[in-house]
Amino acid sequence: MILDTLANAERYFALHPLFPVAFDFLRSTDLLKLTPGQHPIQGKDIFAIAETATGRSRSEAQLECHRKYIDIQLVLQGIDEMGWKPVRECHEPVADYRADHDIQFFSDAPGSWIATPAGSFCLFFPEDAHAPLVSKGEIRKIIIKIASVP
Question: Per residue in 1-15, pLDDT tens?
Fold first, then answer.
């Protein structure tokens, strides 16, 4: 898990061959003009999801993980306090992994919380379970999904 701002994006380019493309999209697109929903970037390897949601409480948030995709979750408006815990420490699955949606939920409590303000992003790898959309207000964000194996 990484918390940072787009100003430091180059630091992460060497971690994955598609990161430069993903971060270029985040830097060169008027993100506030994206309509809610999915937006293609590079086939099935990289796409963006624009969303606006009313925040929920920590107790309402569920940890989730993905196997096929890495998430870059950039907060545009509001503060998203995201829960985090290593997947290897999650022992209470809600259900089996759903390959068709690349998601599995857990009822484990997050081990830590990351207050992510507007202009910052959290980068979650497949080994990172995360519980997003925790806030007392509305959150507007962009989630970039990057194939973990292009």
Answer: 999 999 999 999 999
Give the type of residue at 149.
V
> What CATH number does residue 90 fall under?
2.60.120.370
52: domain range? Answer: 2-147
Would the pLDDT of 150 be above 90?
A: no
Kind and range of the H or E run holding 117: strand 112-117
pTM to 2 decimals?
Answer: 0.96
Q: Which distant-in-sequence residues (6+ apart) come within 8 Å of 109 by Cβ?
A: 83, 85
Q: Which helix (H) or strand (E) holds 21?
A: helix 19-28
Domain count, the chain: 1
